[in-house]
Amino acid sequence: MKDQRGSNNDLIKLIKPRGSLEPTSALRPIALQTMRGVAVVVGVHALSLCIRFAIADSLTPERARLAATEGSEALRFTPVNLTDGSRLTLISPRHWSDLADEVTQELTKTHRELTGMFGSIPPFRSSIRLMDEQSFYELTGAPGWTNAMFFRGEIIIPLAKHQPIDLDNIHRSVKHEYTHAVLSALSRGRIPGWIDEGLAQWIEGDENPALRTTLKNYLQKNEPVPLHLLQGGFTKLESRMVPAAYAQSLLAMQAVVQTYGLTKITAYLQLLREDFDRGLAFETAFDMNQDEFERHLRSTLKTWAKTTAAKNSALDVSTLVR
Ligand SMILES: [Zn+2]
């Protein structure tokens, strides 16, 4: 119980949007619905966290059941055709039609931005589903800290049914999850979890101002989260490690972007797509052994966490890469 409380506190620290002590109105209902131990959901929204690839296989019949209960007449299917031949289908309840239009625009814009960053994106098909949050948690069995998810090629975004829509948060979630879809296409599904999450957070928008302090606090008593634990997604982590895992992923990728640039990252993704061994792809693209990178990252983070100016969370991310 102690660990669980600690985890919630860490997450709640992370969630304060721009220093506010209160969750936004759009987030509060989620916290209320899940207040028996998982008010952390609030924070997840603010950070646009997601989960990937770790939902049990039993999802499939549940998904089918949901499709049947929702009833096709209540849903709107909107095809979204993108440059380079990718095709998305946006699935939303009809009462969210206006929102579906917003999301369509955001997807198109994000696709254009990602093409500008990574070049031509291999064509892929995906769907993005807007779903009321109750159905989302019933359907997925996702951990309470989950916001949206990209799972088996499908993006699912839960929304509060009877509350005002927080468009900024939705845009951020769409951008984050769609980045996962594109990174999956660019790497043929072989991108390591920490790089995937780091890039998705970097691309979604400004860093949460509490993120570094939360990581620093975590590192006072814990070792950095080993990157290999993040390979298959974050849902199998102990909950107390989740905020640190996201923070480490973001900081590491900020450092990689700053040091090597998107051209080398794009080359790395292409090597993964061509089935190179992951370690060899990393070394070829960045001219650095991945184990060495991690050793240096860990020792720099630990040194940073020990600095006596406890309230000074400044970290020059360029020092994370030797
Ligand atoms: Zn994510």
Features:
322 residues, globular, single chain, 12 helices, Neutral Protease, domain 2, alpha/beta, six-stranded mixed beta sheet, binds zinc ion
Provide a short characterization of the protein structure.
This protein has 322 residues and is of the alpha/beta class. It has helices at 2-15, 28-33, 41-47, 59-70, 97-118, 133-140, 167-187, 193-204, 211-221, 242-273, 278-286, 290-306; strands at 50-52, 75-81, 87-93, 125-132, 148-151, 154-159. It is built from twelve helices and six strands.
Q: Can you offer a commentary on this structure?
A:
The chain is of the alpha/beta class. The protein has one domain (2-320): Neutral Protease, domain 2 (Orthogonal Bundle). The protein has 12 helices and 6 strands. The chain has helices at residues 2-15, 28-33, 41-47, 59-70, 97-118, 133-140, 167-187, 193-204, 211-221, 242-273, 278-286, 290-306, and strands spanning 50-52, 75-81, 87-93, 125-132, 148-151, 154-159. Strand 3 (87-93), helix 5 (97-118) and strand 4 (125-132) form a beta-alpha-beta unit.
Question: What's the layout of helices and strands?
Answer:
Elements: H1 2-15, H2 28-33, H3 41-47, E1 50-52, H4 59-70, E2 75-81, E3 87-93, H5 97-118, E4 125-132, H6 133-140, E5 148-151, E6 154-159, H7 167-187, H8 193-204, H9 211-221, H10 242-273, H11 278-286, H12 290-306
Parallel strand pairs: 1-5, 3-4, 4-6
Antiparallel strand pairs: 2-3, 5-6
Helix pairs in contact: 1-3, 1-9, 5-7, 7-8, 7-10, 8-10, 9-10, 9-12, 10-11
The site of zinc ion (ZN) has 5 residues, from α7 and α8.
